[in-house]
Write a structure and sequence with these properties.
heterodimer, A: 322 residues, mainly alpha, MetI-like fold, 2 domains, 14 helices, 73% helix, globular, B: 347 residues, alpha/beta, eight-stranded mixed beta sheet, four-stranded antiparallel beta sheet, 11 helices, 14 strands, binds adenosine-5'-diphosphate, binds magnesium ion
Chain lengths: 322, 347
């Protein structure tokens, strides 16, 4: 089977997955009942007519199937409706808040990737040395540390005690630091990105180090050394590429869930990102926002999975397409 | 009848040539939690230019560790603790890591036991063989490709231009081993180390690969160290033979001498446990092959005396006490056995 056909099949599968999620999401939101009634319940002076009017305003009348197709048709035109709480177009909010989340997540994943590669190489090439044990212990601790705890420690040390890094928000509310918007934004990113790097690094290092240790024991590594290739090329060219194969899946999930894994970080640092917005939307039953954000996160995850599968084909010639 | 087996006899020369490789008193020990494993404990052998040395011995006798030591690639917890490895007159054990790197794959190359695991699964044949050429000889990509095709043809791979773009999993076991042999020959090394190059292959393929190796060795006039546990393999391939047992050398001689006039009791036992054409498996007179009773000693704190004493039919009290030293009993023929005139030391 050719690569093009394989990708086409995976694309169709991904599409089915997204449609499936949309149906489940729609059914579950509907199971709550008419959200307008829920939201307006127990407020004084609300009449049946008013509920009727608002329900129609938000397009919540008609049969379930009618409403589903209306919703899907709107989604395809990137019309996610209007947020009940903010009274703003959901699509606009998803972009604004989503970009804030990507701003800390993408650098965090990329930095973590580079750092964990270096740490894993350092540890795996010195297996059972003190360096190696230190790395394993550190990664284990990082892996099991509760997220908010590190965030609070970072704030206590760098904001409260040393006072050198901002503890909340993405921008200064009054004057930007040093009068520069760019520097101000970067300065605010340091702590949340640092926290995400730490957690990503811990897991990536655990996976990559053990994978690398396995690969370094293989005959073809000895053979590469016996061919006179310098150690640098043996480790980075021959071992690391093989070691990455089992780590790809995790990396894909990391990218795919980028928008969905931020809540803790964004809550601790009061970051105006999609994660914090999502939590808020759920608490306040802002259903257009919930549905919009869920669909965006779903599409991200499915796309990342698709890209992971394609990456596997690109990196590992043994994979039989089918 | 033994003489028919030693088909590869050494060229008769008046004075022995200067050896290409001479290993003297090599000691490689594994430092494990329980103590010191004396995997290689005072080993001597030499390889003459253009000859094949067969190193033969039971599994665990230290053949692999010895050949990896020549490459200076013994993995921790093993460490070289003594001896000399003279290659073209220079001691490899005194070389810097960079000097060793420049030597590996270029002047000394290696063929591995398991072709299924000794090629990198994610690089094409052309990519992984070409990389070595581009690194050592600074060839361009096109020049490297051309040289790889040349080598693949030499080792009997059909349609080499196609194989260049294939990955290891697309080749059969025998084909992969041919690629492994081509890889070793890329830079025209003067010494090739082959560690059990046919042990992992199907019996029918084994013969083909051995034939190829013997043919290449003769045609390219290269020197080869052929490590094997199989007397039949050395019989076909080796000019000289070194018999190893429990980290030490029992006997070294040219192939004809080993097969026609073996001196060490272990060499004799090995030859007796070898299937022979004349007492073949056909007919009704089928007899079980004699095997050597007992097991090799534990190399972690081995008992004093000759390493072979508890399995040796000739062992006496002094064999249990004294370690025999290598003694030359005829030109080019040395043996380590108190019963053959070796000196013994208390160890
Ligand atoms: N990782 C190891 N740890 C401890 N001892 C080892 C290790 N690898 C090999 N040895 C010792 O080295 C001896 C020789 O091994 P090897 O050279 O592989 O034997 P051969 O190739 O002759 O079968 C073994 O008998 C064993 O005692
Ligand atoms: Mg071996």
């Amino acid at each position: 089977m050719g690569t093009a056909r394989y990708i086409a099949r995976r694309l169709i599968f991904s599409l089915c997955l997204i449609i499936g999620v949309s149906i489940i999401l729609f059914t579950m939101i509907n199971a709550i009942g008419n959200p307008i009634e829920v939201l307006l319940a127990e407020r004084p002076g609300i009449t049946e007519e008013m509920i009727q009017a608002v329900t129609e305003y938000y397009g919540l009348h008609g049969s379930v199937t009618d409403r589903y197709f209306t919703w899907i048709w709107a989604l395809l035109r990137l019309d996610f409706g209007t947020s009940i709480i903010y009274n703003l177009p959901v699509s606009e909010m998803l972009v604004t808040y989503g970009l804030e989340t990507l701003k800390i997540q993408v650098p965090a994943i990329l930095i973590a990737l580079c750092v964990s590669v270096l740490i894993s190489v350092l540890a795996a090439t010195r297996q059972y040395s003190r360096v190696d044990f230190g790395v394993i212990a550190g990664a284990m601790v990082g892996h099991s540390l509760p997220g908010f705890l590190l965030g609070i420690i970072l704030i206590l040390v760098f904001s409260y005690t040393l006072g050198i890094l901002p503890s909340y928000g993405a921008y200064s509310t009054r004057n930007p630091l040093w009068g520069s918007d760019m520097a101000d934004a970067l300065w605010h990113m340091v702590l949340p990105v640092g926290m995400l790097v730490f957690f990503n690094c811990a897991t990536l290092t655990l996976l990559l180090r053990s994978s690398l240790v396995d690969v370094l024991r293989q005959d073809f590594i000895t053979a590469a050394r016996a061919s006179g290739l310098p150690e640098r090329r043996v480790v980075f060219g021959h071992a690391l590429r093989n070691a990455f194969i089992p780590v790809l899946t995790y990396l894909g999930i990391l990218f795919g869930l980028m928008l969905g894994t931020a809540p803790v970080t964004e809550t601790v640092f009061t970051w105006p990102g999609l994660g914090a917005l999502y939590i808020m939307a759920i608490q306040q039953l802002d259903y257009p926002l919930i549905m919009g954000a869920t669909m965006v996160i779903t599409v991200m995850l499915v796309t990342a999975t698709l890209l992971t599968d394609i990456a596997y084909v690109a990196i590992d010639p043994r994979i039989r397409l089918g | 009848m033994l003489s028919t087996l030693a088909s590869a006899s050494s060229p008769v020369t008046a004075a022995p040539p200067a050896p290409l490789l001479e290993v003297r008193d090599l000691r490689v020990h594994f430092f494990v939690r329980e103590g010191v494993v004396r995997a290689v404990d005072g080993v001597d052998f030499r390889v003459n230019p253009g000859e094949t040395l067969g190193i033969v011995g039971e599994s665990g006798s230290g053949k692999t560790v010895s050949s990896m030591s020549i490459m200076r690639l013994v993995p921790p917890p093993a460490r070289n603790v003594g001896g000399q490895i003279l290659f073209e007159g220079e001691d490899l054990l005194a070389k810097t890591p960079d000097e060793m790197e420049a030597l590996r794959g270029r002047r000394i190359a290696m063929i591995f036991q398991n072709p299924a695991t000794s090629l990198n699964p994610i690089y094409s044949i052309g990519a992984q063989l070409g990389e070595i050429l581009r690194w050592h000889l600074k060839l361009s990509r096109a020049e490297a490709d051309a040289r790889v095709v040349e080598l693949l043809t030499l080792v009997g791979i059909s349609d080499p231009a196609t194989r260049l773009r294939q990955f290891p999993h697309e080749l059969s076991g025998g084909m992969k081993q041919r690629v492994g042999i081509a890889r070793a020959l890329l830079c025209n090394p003067s010494l090739v180390l082959a560690d059990e190059p046919t042990t992992a292959l199907d019996v029918t393929i084994q013969a083909q690969i051995l034939e190829l190796l013997a043919d290449l060795q003769a045609r390219l006039k290269m020197s080869m160290v052929l490590v094997t546990h199989d007397m039949g393999v050395v019989a076909r391939m080796a000019h000289r033979i070194t018999v190893m047992y429990a980290g030490r050398v029992c006997e070294s001689a040219d192939a004809a001498t080993i097969f026609n006039a073996p001196q060490h009791p272990y060499t004799r036992a090995l030859l007796e446990s070898m299937p022979r054409i004349d007492q073949s498996y056909t007919g009704t007179k089928r007899q079980p092959l004699p095997t050597i009773a007992g097991r090799p000693p534990n190399l972690l704190n081995p008992p004093p005396g000759c390493r072979f004493h508890d399995r040796c039919p000739e062992a006496s009290a002094e064999c249990r006490r004294l370690l025999p030293l290598e003694t030359t009993i005829a030109p080019g023929h040395s043996v380590s056995c108190l019963k053959r005139g070796s000196e013994g030391i208390a160890a």
